[in-house]
């Protein structure tokens, strides 16, 4: 009898832990775009800019990253932003370094 009660208690603890971990991942996905200009572009800009931002974020080689960021900046600059605005965005991206891939 006691064993069944303990197992039920353990099952409940596992369920709560899994639920909490899932909620934390969801919150992280919502909060992360606020600090990352590339993720912010993915979420807020029109499709073509969001697609370019995603290409930059998932690029795996320096050459692909460079190509993707140049396409992204060119696309954004065609939208009427000043050069200084995008220069600042590039500086932020360079300081941030390669994206941190997490599963």
What does the model show?
- The structure is a single chain.
- This protein has five helices and no strands.
- With 103 residues, it is mostly helical.
- It has two domains: 1-32; 36-98, no CATH class.
Give short descriptive properties of this protein.
103 residues; mainly alpha
Can you lay out the helices and strands and say which pair or pack?
Blueprint: H1 2-35, H2 37-44, H3 47-58, H4 62-77, H5 83-96
Helix pairs in contact: 1-2, 2-3, 3-4
* Shape, principal axes of CA atoms: elongated
Main sheet record: none
User: Into which percent range does the helicity of residues fall?
Assistant: over 70%
How many structural domains does the protein architecture include? Answer: 2
Q: Identify low-pLDDT runs.
A: none
Span of the ends, CA to CA: 40 Å
Please tell me how large the radius of gyration is.
21 Å
Helix tally equals 5
Structural class call reads mainly alpha
Q: How big a fraction of the residues is strand?
A: under 5%
Number of strands: 0
The average pLDDT score comes to: 76
State the order of secondary-structure elements, H for helix, E for strand. HHHHH
Summarize it.
The chain is mainly alpha-helical and 103 residues long.
């Amino acid at each position: 009898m006691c064993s069944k009660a303990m197992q039920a208690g353990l099952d409940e603890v596992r369920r709560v832990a899994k639920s909490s971990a899932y909620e934390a991942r969801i919150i992280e996905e919502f909060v992360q775009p606020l600090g990352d200009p590339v993720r912010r572009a993915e979420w807020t800009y029109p499709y073509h800019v969001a697609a370019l931002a995603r290409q930059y974020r998932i690029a795996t080689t320096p050459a692909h990253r460079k190509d993707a960021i140049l396409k992204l900046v060119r696309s954004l600059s065609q939208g009427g932003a000043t050069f200084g605005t995008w220069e600042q965005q590039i500086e932020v991206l360079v300081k941030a370094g390669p994206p941190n891939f997490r599963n």
